[in-house]
Design goal:
Chain lengths: ~500, ~500
């Protein structure tokens, strides 16, 4: 985040909100008074007051008459106990089968005329569509030969230089020589896996975890071992160590774990932000176990309640780490420009993987993104996005709370684009999905975020956009969920009556 | 080829040249007289005379006083006997190891200040750089949102429609619903392999064959079995059947062959054009053996001595065939737009492979290529390219003939961009490569086109460009080859003297 442009009161508000997000102050708890804030941050009383006003408008705090500011209760946060995580003691690497439900869900959501809450797409109206289009057009016109040449891996020097600066914001100091330009983050993760894994190897993956990562493992002939990704803090170091130790000693048909694909910053789907000390512990642990870290930090720059968090990579052994990210969620989904960063030897292998699988990155897109990022518009844009997504996610959480059956909880992410909704135990989200699709409303049902029979009471919603149509769609999913809950209760009453 | 715009005398010349290329008339043989041509093609005597004049200027025929036109002798064509093909009876699938020579060769050739004859790049001055740049800029400006959106696989409808028309020129009738837009042909072949193969499977591959295909098999954990690709006619159906039968019955650790990656039209590197009857036989044979056909038809549109030849796919079982090609060698290397075409069920799996490995194709490039191809400039451009490459390849062959050691032969392709040069047996091209790199001249040495110890007396040159600098570089390679040959002869004389 470009702090030079952030007003003082906003900086103070951000710090207070960070404390709330990290659970230092809990919902309902009293916050420092305006006078205390003034002393704590060495700012004027007026600035402290403005900070609280901002936090009010963000829906983070509420003033109570004569007794100061309190952390707003807000809709209930989902907790570990609400979700059917895979059974940890039984967690061993398993083959990934092609999943037809995932394919169906993705295809249906993209149909014209549907309300698509499935894909984690950024808000179209927020993207710098015209500006990036203009910059791309200008760059291609100015140097058409640069667009025309094979931009062989690792890709164009000016773009790699800009990327190195972005990566440094996450605490990772790299030279442009260690930056490989890729076709988005998905390709970066694919190349990372191809670079360090051999078919049959096992890979640690978050659960619930991004469905396309599971399907990618299937295509590469890799086995998956799921580690719970807890709401709020993500993967737990102790749980991860348990899984690593178990997979290592299991023997038999189980090869040791080769890599771990982790999203420490605003994980997908639960939106967890892993505490820095856990990042450090996990980075050291993976190195100790000889497991490659593949960090997906695509959402790292999309922190909207806190400062841009550090990448786990900043604490990791560079020769065993591949950092993957992209510009797809921030400024340009369709341009397909992402990157992979790693230590020297690994890097050479990753470059070779890119060469043999697709030869080069697309020239016109690379020129456009370079112009945009080098032109300085990127940081300004991130500031706009930050307040936009804070607003849309807060609104969607509120509507979920109002329209879904009692006992529904949701994630309270501090970054990213998506919400994870957890209905009461026993609820079958596939029924809900089928009911919603009759009305051309699509969302991502929980079971596609795991290989086991997990998250049947969960769903993921893209919260990047807000409109009357989307509000109605979310309400409608809630109503349908209510009807299904009632029907379920009626059935179980009948069963009891019959058996009585 | 757009025949409406081809003058009659040129059409006649093309037909005659086709007969020469296909070996119906051999070097030194007398061709039909002008009067006979007039009768054969029902054209005027004048048109027949103009046709021969054109063939003279192309270096295909020579007039002899009062006795008509004869097929020009030209530099000697390389034959099967000149090359160390892998030993066919011993040809069994083998693991592919990462090849450091291939990496070195590719990296060195791309260095600034080097004369790069390594990569098969189209001629920069021939590419529609400015026009495509303008069209791309205009398209992105007109509809920046189209560039911005995820163009999820199979890709944008208008582009797939244009591609379906191109593919039809090769005799393959497909609907746009069976076209997947990819990041170039390399990605198409990669996706095809990923779609039909499992790690450990065996794949038939041409030998000498494109080095990046070998390295791609390595990355995917696939095994390779080499089938000779003969100069002039390419893979021989009987030899292929021998290999398939042997690999099928070998048993033990050898899984049956799953797929064959073939380049029937202007194969890389020998430039062979497979006769249509062989294409038919092989297509039927692969189906019989249950082997998937992955046809790389990237050079199909770059026929410069003959009509655009038919794709093998046009005779194949669509449910067992994946046709791959691109616009990279014709109009836009750096844009990375290619395609994959296949039958319905296979197609769904290929689309999924694209989705999980890189999510989508780059928007700006897809818009630009669509505008170019739909605008009708493409066929005009192919006509220009056709005469350009015919000229550069003919010139380079001539210079090779003049400056390389006696006994050197070369391929005489009728399409594509590259020449395959075969030095006398016993010559070590790696020595030559090392001598040339001291003078910053790079080419592709024969051994990287095979997994065995083959083609040590061969090299591939990119013949797309012609300039004084390139002419000097080719001459210089020839001189260095001469010096090395002399040194070798001197050494062997000394050895004989010592042992006598």
């Amino acid at each position: 985040m470009d702090t030079r442009r952030t007003p003082l009161y906003e900086q103070v508000a951000d710090r207070v909100e960070e404390m709330v997000v990290q659970g230092v102050y809990e919902p309902g708890e009293r916050l420092p008074s305006i006078r205390e804030l003034h002393a704590l941050f060495s700012v004027s009383v007026n600035t402290a007051r403005e900070a609280y006003q901002l936090l009010e408008s963000r829906g983070v705090v509420e003033p109570r008459n004569h007794s100061g500011h309190y952390v707003l209760q807000g809709p209930p946060l989902c907790t570990d106990c609400d979700m059917d995580f895979p059974d940890l003691p039984a967690a061993l690497p398993r083959d990934v089968a092609p999943d037809s439900l995932t394919r169906q869900v993705l295809a249906e959501g993209a149909q014209p005329g549907w309300v698509n809450l499935t894909t984690a797409e950024p808000a179209a109206r927020l993207l710098p569509t015209k500006r990036l289009g203009d910059l791309t057009a200008r760059a291609v016109r100015r140097d058409p030969a640069a667009a025309m040449r094979y931009s062989l891996p690792p890709g164009s020097e000016p773009l790699r230089q800009e990327i190195a600066k972005r990566v440094f914001r996450g605490g990772v100091a790299v030279s442009p020589e260690q930056v490989l330009v890729t076709a988005g983050c998905q390709e970066a993760v694919f190349l990372a896996l191809m670079t360090v894994c051999k078919p049959g190897d096992s890979v640690v993956i978050e659960s619930p975890g991004f469905f396309l990562f599971y399907q990618l493992l299937e295509r590469l002939g890799l086995r998956a071992v799921e580690v719970p990704s807890r709401p709020v803090t993500g993967v737990d170091p102790d749980e991860l160590e348990f899984v690593l130790r178990r997979a290592t000693t299991a023997g038999g048909e189980h090869k040791p774990v080769r890599a771990a694909v982790l999203i420490p910053n605003f994980s997908n789907p639960v939106g967890a932000l892993m505490p820095d000390e856990n990042k450090q512990r996990i980075a050291a642990m993976l190195d100790r176990y000889g497991v490659y870290l593949i960090e997906d930090d695509m959402y790292g720059e999309m922190a909207w309640n806190v400062e841009r968090p550090r990448s786990m990579t900043s604490w990791a052994n560079p020769e065993r780490t591949l950092l993957c990210a992209s510009f797809s969620k921030t400024i340009a989904p369709g341009y397909r420009i992402g990157y992979l960063v790693s230590g020297k030897e690994l890097f050479q292998r990753a470059v070779h993987s890119k060469l043999v699988t697709s030869a080069a990155v697309s020239g016109p897109a690379a020129l456009g993104i370079t112009a945009f990022v080098a032109g300085g518009g990127y940081d300004r844009w991130l500031r706009t996005a930050r307040s936009h997504y804070r607003e849309t996610v807060t609104k969607m959480r509120q509507v979920i709370h109002e329209s879904f059956p009692e006992g529904t909880r949701s994630s309270r992410p501090a970054g990213g684009l998506v919400l994870w909704v957890v209905l009461p135990q026993g609820f079958d989200v596939i029924d809900l999905y089928n009911r919603a699709r009759e009305e051309r409303i699509a969302f991502a049902p929980g079971p596609i975020f795991s290989l086991g029979d997990c998250y049947r009471n969960c769903l993921r919603l893209n919260a990047a956009n807000w409109s009357a149509e989307i509000e109605r769609a979310v309400q409608r999913i809630g109503e349908l969920a209510g009807e299904l809950s009632q029907a379920r209760r009626a059935r179980s009453r009948n069963r009891r009556a019959v058996s009585a």
